[in-house]
Design a protein that fits this description.
By secondary structure, this protein is α+β, with helices and mostly antiparallel strands. The protein has 25 helices and 21 strands. The protein folds into four domains: about 120 residues, Transcription Factor, Stat-4; about 180 residues, STAT transcription factor, all-alpha domain (Glutathione S-transferase Yfyf (Class Pi), Chain A, domain 2, Up-down Bundle), CATH 1.20.1050; about 120 residues, Immunoglobulin-like, CATH 2.60.40; about 160 residues, SHC Adaptor Protein, CATH 3.30.505.10.
């Protein structure tokens, strides 16, 4: 079943979440019509490879054209109209930046997988629940409502200033007219009446000046209060959501809404600034005793400039954190001399700033807690513009930066232990200057802490550091965090571990799988709602009786799934995280031949299967094969191993003991679509093979001795053609076959 088909079967509350991230940037009708094709492409790789992204964009347009031809024949007018609009969008919006559509589609697919994983969980995790707090949603709506009201108030004040200007011009004209009269004319009754009218008009002018200043003051106060409270909280929440998204959590949205709020507030402040300038102009033409403008205007202007400075400083954000294109699922881990990308945005989108802001990138070295020093190589100064982003935001993306480690004063590079290196935090800093309407504002921002590695073998532990930091703190710049890393709540950690699976290999973990991980982390069954787990327990201390840590063990499983058993994992047929004791409880009452798949607890990156059998006396026995690692799985797909696996039981002919996947799914029904080819028991020498050779295949065979009821392991994979195997079955005794595949087996 396609991922999109699974999405369509979700409950309404989950479908509403899906609806939130499909918009005009990537319309849902295209996702629906091209579901299988979209899911078969590698959008993650294309998001960091411009040539690949361009090819996928062109192929996407071809697919849309094919759909257009189909619906045109069906005369579906509405769909024809929508597809033409989508085609125009794809060609116009993404032609200059094809990687952007790849990022959008990759994010959508990833978010679908996360929602599917969340839907399979009995309860929503604590972190995700906090991110979807109804109070937060209510605050977002309030911010947007208040920003709109402030914008309207500023525009209404514009009309008041214009009325004041017209009134003053009329007063000025009438006053100058009287001043131009002869002295004897000024004593006339008519002129005296006019003077009284002018005095009344001056009183009105004074009242209107005070009223306009009062309205301007209220607008400034409303902006100040909004910026100090709700808008600041919104920005901090967005940054926290970005942290969580970087470690596999829900896709962080809301930046476009924040941009709209920041831009409207900036426009309102500049509008108020122009109003104050107009009042200053009116002041030069007319002033009087008790005039409120010279008293109030300087204070109001100072406050407006102060708010503009703060608004601009807060609007300079890292939209996409540093990430190597080679490891899109591992942001903030950077390898020396390997390019990484990072994107910044100014949330104040004003046309006057297009190509006017040049951003400089540098590395903020952890001087206090590290002897290692780095510099950035590549283009580290670029101008922000509105042309590269599909949504027209004012942004800049650095695509060709490389960190380079500098030699120490002793003449050699810093040499520290592997854990020390992966616990050192640095950050990428950015600075620029905005010059606008007489204001000059210096802006600075930094990425979330990054880990610098010099060897790809350090990547797993470096990623563990990134996970722990962003799970444990919302402080964006605590570079000394690992001097004394805090404990993490086990329930939140397990939620993040499930995200590693949903984001990296397409399917999260259910409650039973998480319970097994909790027991492995703590060494005992626990109620993990308030259990605190240390950093050392997670990543530094070896598991009991093992030569590796919990995280290294888990990371090896992720790598195994990604490279060798991904379709089986996505289909949900790999139970995976289940102890040997629990698997026996699950299998003991099942039909003989029922088996389950679990990850090895003693071998890194290994997967095994255990099946239940029944002896002649009625006793139940269990058999487990030696775990298959990436070496074996590179030679033979795991689904084919399950199909072709054979066991030699003493004097019996080889047979496949695997009948039903737990609990009772026929094996071929579960794995049939993943077989590399349909099983072919016998193949004559003349049926295939080049130059007279019979095609050979690997057939996994195990031997189980009569005097043992313990689980046993497989022999090494034996290269054996189907026809040779058939001949062996027909013409050789079981003893001879046993000799051919003999290998002492041990308990796993």
């Amino acid at each position: 079943m396609s991922q999109w088909s699974q999405v369509q079967q979700l409950e309404i509350k989950f479908l509403e979440q899906v609806d939130q991230f499909y918009d005009d940037n990537f319309p849902m009708e295209i996702r629906h019509l091209l579901a299988q094709w979209i899911e078969s492409q590698d959008w993650e790789a294309a998001a960091n490879n411009e040539a690949m992204a361009m090819i996928l964009l062109q192929n996407l347009i071809i697919q849309v054209d094919d759909q257009l031809d189909r619906v045109s024949q069906e005369k579906n007018l509405l769909l024809i109209h929508n597809l033409k609009r989508v085609r125009k969008l794809l060609q116009g919006k993404y032609h200059g930046n094809p990687m952007h559509i790849a990022v959008i589609i990759s994010n959508c697919l990833r978010e679908e997988r996360r929602i599917l994983a969340a839907a399979s969980m009995p309860v929503q995790g604590p972190l995700e629940k906090s991110l979807q707090n109804s109070v937060v949603s209510e605050r977002q709506r309030n911010v947007e409502h208040k920003v709109s009201a402030i914008k309207n108030s500023a525009q209404m004040t514009d009309q008041d200033v214009k009325y004041l200007e017209d009134l003053q011009e009329e007063f000025d004209f009438r006053y100058k007219t009287i001043q131009s009269l002869e002295q004897n004319d000024k004593n006339s009754t008519l002129i005296k009446q006019e003077m009284l009218a002018l005095q009344a008009m001056l009183n009105t002018l004074d009242y209107k000046r005070k009223e306009v200043l009062s309205k301007i003051g209220r607008v400034i106060h409303e902006i100040d209060m909004l910026m100090s409270n709700m808008l600041t909280e919104e920005l901090l929440d967005w940054k926290r959501r970005q942290q969580i998204a970087c470690i596999g959590g829900p896709l962080h949205g809301g930046l476009d809404q924040l941009q709209n709020c920041f831009t409207l507030l900036a426009e309102s402040l500049f509008q108020v600034r122009r109003q104050l300038e107009k009042l200053d102009e009116l002041l030069t033409r007319l002033t009087y005793d008790g005039d409120p403008i010279p008293v109030q205007r300087p204070q109001l202007l100072e406050k407006v400039n102060f708010l503009l400075y703060n608004l601009f400083r807060n609007s300079f954000v890292v939209e996409r954190q540093p990430c190597m294109p080679t490891h899109p699922q591992r942001p903030m881990v950077l390898k020396t001399l390997i390019q990484f990308t990072v994107k910044l945005r100014l949330l104040i989108k004003l046309p006057e700033l297009n190509y006017q802001i040049r951003v400089k990138a540098t590395i903020d070295n952890n001087v206090l807690h590290s002897n290692r020093r780095f510099v950035l190589c590549g283009t580290h100064v670029k101008a922000m513009n509105m042309d590269e982003s599909a949504n027209g935001s004012l942004s800049v993306e650095f695509r060709h930066l490389q960190p380079k480690e500098m030699k120490t004063s002793a003449g050699s590079k810093g040499n520290e232990g592997p854990h020390m290196v992966t616990e050192e935090l640095h950050s990428i800093s950015f600075e620029t200057q905005v010059c606008l309407y007489g204001l000059t504002i210096n802006l600075e921002t930094s990425s979330l802490p990054v880990v610098m590695i010099s060897n790809v073998s350090q990547l797993p532990n470096a990623w563990a550091s990134i996970i722990w930091y962003n799970l444990s703190t919302n402080d964006p710049q605590n570079l000394s965090f690992f001097n004394n890393p805090p404990a993490a709540t086990l329930s939140q950690l397990l939620e993040v571990l499930s995200w590693q699976f949903s984001s990296y290999v397409g399917r999260g973990l259910n409650s039973e799988q998480l319970n097994m991980l909790a027991e492995k982390l703590t060494g005992q069954p626990v109620s993990y709602n308030d259990y605190q787990l240390s950093w050392a327990k997670f990543c530094k201390e070896h598991l009991p009786g093992k030569s590796f840590t919990f995280w290294v063990w888990l990371e090896a499983i992720l790598d195994l799934i990604k490279k060798h058993i991904l379709p089986l994992w996505i289909d949900g047929y790999v139970m995976g995280f289940v102890s040997k004791e629990k698997e026996r409880i699950l299998l003991k009452d099942k039909t003989p031949g029922t088996f389950l798949l679990r990850f090895s607890e003693s071998n890194l990156g290994g997967i095994t299967f255990t099946w239940v059998d029944q002896l002649e006396n009625g006793d139940v026995t269990f058999h487990s094969v030696e775990p298959y690692n990436k070496g074996r799985l590179s030679a033979l797909p795991f689904a084919d191993i399950l199909r072709d696996y054979k066991v030699i039981m003493a004097d019996n002919v080889p047979e496949n003991p695997l009948k039903y996947l737990y609990p009772d799914i026929p094996k071929d029904k579960a794995f049939g679509k993943h077989y590399s080819c349909q099983p072919n028991e016998v193949s004559k020498p003349s049926d295939g093979g080049g130059k007279g050779y019979v095609p050979s295949v690997f057939i996994p065979v195990s031997k189980i001795l009569n005097d043992s009821t313990e689980p046993h392991s497989p022999s090494d994979l034996l290269p054996m053609s189907p026809s040779v195997y058939a001949v062996l079955k027909e013409h050789l005794s079981p003893t001879a076959i046993e000799t051919a595949v003999s290998c002492e087996l041990s308990h796993s």
